[in-house]
Amino acid sequence: MIPVAERALQVGLHSRDSRARLARLIARLFDHWELSAADQALLLGLSPDSRATVARYRRGEPLGDNADLLARAGHLLGIHKALRIMFPHDRDLAYRWITTPNRRFANRPPLEIMRQYGFEGMIAVRRYLDFERGR
């Protein structure tokens, strides 16, 4: 899954096709993480009531050509990539890590950090994973 995302990032996310591929990747990632529609919207920087927008992305509509939305998608895929690298033989753990309490976050799940702090929380989770991966 990640190599396609990386190619999309390299090609440029301003094309409609690239943003549509990115929307499908993010939808699949949310499925793997088993997130509620409200959490999906929140992670994309949308109102938790924006379920219709998330549903449109699931149906193949491209992500908006919006720097914040595209940055969020990039960080979500970066988190996913780090988890797949850290847990190469345990996809289940890689997918459930986001909702599992973690000592680094005061025994709160990383998803809760992202919910509480929004974009900054997402960056904190990604930085933590990048640090751990580099050890």
What can you tell me about this protein's structure?
This protein has 135 residues and is an all-alpha fold. The protein has one domain (2-134). Helix content is 70%, strand content 0%. It contains seven helices and no strands. It has helices at residues 2-11, 16-33, 37-43, 51-58, 67-86, 91-96, 110-134. Helix 1 (2-11) runs antiparallel to helix 2. The longest helix is centred in the C-terminal third of the chain and has 25 residues, at 110-134. The protein is globular, with a radius of gyration of 14 Å.
Short structural summary:
The chain is 70% helix and 0% strand. With 135 residues, it is mostly helical.
Keywords:
single chain, 135 residues, mainly alpha, 70% helix
- Using only C-alpha atoms, the radius of gyration works out to 14 Å
Structural class: mainly alpha
Q: What is the CA-CA span between the terminal residues?
A: 24 Å
Uncertain segments of ≥5 residues (pLDDT<50)? 1-5
Number of strand segments = 0
Q: Quick one: overall form?
A: globular
Number of domains: 1
- Strand fraction band? under 5%
Main sheet: strands, sense, barrel: none
> How many alpha or pi helices?
7
The mean pLDDT is 90
Give helix % range: 55-70%
Strand/helix succession: HHHHHHH
Produce the secondary structure layout.
Blueprint: H1 2-11, H2 16-33, H3 37-43, H4 51-58, H5 67-86, H6 91-96, H7 110-134
Helix pairs in contact: 1-2, 2-5, 5-7
